[in-house]
Amino acid sequence: MEGELMAVPSLSGVGNWLRSPSGKRMVALSLFYLTLGLLFSTVAGTYITRSEVHQSAYGEDWNDMSAFRADIKNQGITTTSIVSSPLLLEEIQSPRDTVFVVSGIERDTISLPRFSADSSVIQLVEGLGYSTSEIDAISNFVERGGTIVVLDDFGYAQGLADEFGLGFSGHQLYDTQTWDPDLDFNYVWLNITNGFNYSTSSGSRTNTNPCIADEDSDGTPDFLEGIVVPTTEELGLCSHRWDSISATYNMDPGYDLLLNQPSAFDKGEAGENSDDNLYPIGFSTQDAYLDTNNDGKLTVGFSGTDAGSDEQGPFAMYVKYCRSRNCDNPDSGRAYFVTDGSLLVNSIYDTEGVESGAYGEFNKTPDINDNRRWALDLIAEALMSNDGNASISSDAQVIFDESRHQQPSFMGDTYNLLYYILIYFTNDWMAMLLMFLGLFVLFEFIIIKKLDPEPWRHVFSIIYYGYGDSRRYEYYGRANKIKQILLTRVRNVNSLTREEFDALPARDLQKMVDDPVLIKFIFEDRRYSMEEMIAVIKRIKTWGRR
């Protein structure tokens, strides 16, 4: 024959194998891993698909924020990102020197159980955007002196805004007076005369920002006093305000921000409230309307009370929160909220890059705006010291929240999901309690269901012998078990492996034992009385000691 035929198992053989302990174990393991694989694929399936990325600080497209991140890096500030959960903000050692940027919350949070302080005891469903534990971590970060920037319009920032007493309307804003005719009605200008008028009674508080703080009102910022032509090092984080061509420094406290499809804050929750240190700074005009019925058309009504009508402005669109009154303490925490997630995207932020074609071709080019100056001003306000020399800490950093953005890499979101679960189980005390309880129940189930192994054999000595012990320990009343003990002891005394011992001829085995009673016991297959077994056991105990 040219080759051997493969043996085909018969149905009876397969049936016998399935009924055997090894067959049952293999079938159970196969079903377990199959079920686990199906569960994993179901959960991870929605995260595996490659998706379009936008509003990411690490993307290079027109709707990403790479230009803003590049400006920060060029100023010598460390930039990094969080891809798992903002719970990691609790681990930051120097929140005073850290800015946390949230732009476009595209994904809702995962609802995992946690204990709550209210009457519900256990909270099974989280709010929008972030879990309660994550919102607490962000809020504590601000309380410890950190700065957060939240840019969102129709996303999931509502839960975080609620923590600071704000409410996103969730509807698009149209402004018949300040829309950009060079682009279209989706682009709206937010004109701010003075970005540091925190309340009607506070007056201008430009001294809270080192870039335009001018104590003697001589038109020169305090940190540049006595310097005619400052160097880049002397300008520090305020270099964006210096015009090297005209050799002039821009001291304008106002901003003209260009927004794309913005929303607005709810009217009842964005009013001036100095008691809460919440300051609305940027407003739409009175000719602005919120599309509350989401029909894309302007339906005039009185404050949105008429059925099917849109709500009329003005609306707060830029609100600043400070831990200190009027933001006077430079070491206190700050929070900036703007109702437009695309405020810092490349196509609006980097007008020079758009004109040079860095982000592709556009039918219309956005006008020059103050989005870049506003963003870098708040970075300077958060990270610069007020010691008069524009210095920054070596720990200064800007963290971008990428945990709520779709990831472009294959299974990137799956990795983030697993990492989020890991962070959840190591930071939330209820999660740790549930994990330990689950592991305890699992181990108890394994212990209960696990079959006891064969009784352990005393290889080097047999302790129990006698009438009572033999009845109590029936193990010693079985001749084949006693033979196994004796043979194991012979093998160990002679330092043989199992393979060597199994291949040993009977004659050599007899020479090793060298005891006629035990040799007869090994090779003779018969029933033994209790007295005979006890005599054999005693002889085994003394064997090998001679």
Detail the poorly predicted runs.
1-6, 45-51, 453-472
Total DSSP helices: 17
Percent in strands: 5-15%
Q: Gyration radius, to the nearest Å?
A: 38 Å
Give a quick account of the main beta sheet: strands, pairing sense, barrel closure. 7 strands, mixed
Instruction: Give the domain tally.
Output: 2
Give the number of DSSP strands.
16
Percent helix range:
25-40%
What is the approximate shape?
Answer: elongated
In terms of structural class, how would the helical and strand content be classed?
A: alpha/beta
* Overall average pLDDT: 79
Give me the side-by-side strand order of the main sheet: 1-16-2-5-15-14-11
> What's the end-to-end separation, in Å?
60 Å
Descriptive notes:
With 546 residues, this protein is of the alpha/beta class. It has 2 domains: 66-433, no CATH class; 467-542, no CATH class. Helices cover 33% and strands 12% of the residues. It contains 17 helices and 16 strands. The strands form 5 sheets. Strands 1-16-2-5-15-14-11 form a 7-stranded mixed beta sheet, with helices on both faces. A hairpin with a 4-residue loop joins strand 8 (242-243) and strand 9. Helix 2 (21-48) crosses helix 10 (412-427) and helix 10 (412-427) crosses helix 11. The longest helix is centred in the first third of the chain and has 28 residues, at 21-48. The relative contact order is 0.13.
Concise account of the structure shown:
With 546 residues, the chain is of the alpha/beta class. It contains 17 helices and 16 strands. The strands form five sheets. Strands 1-16-2-5-15-14-11 form a seven-stranded mixed sheet, with helices on both faces. It has a three-stranded antiparallel sheet with strand order 6-12-13, with no helix packed on it. Strands 3-4 form a two-stranded antiparallel sheet.
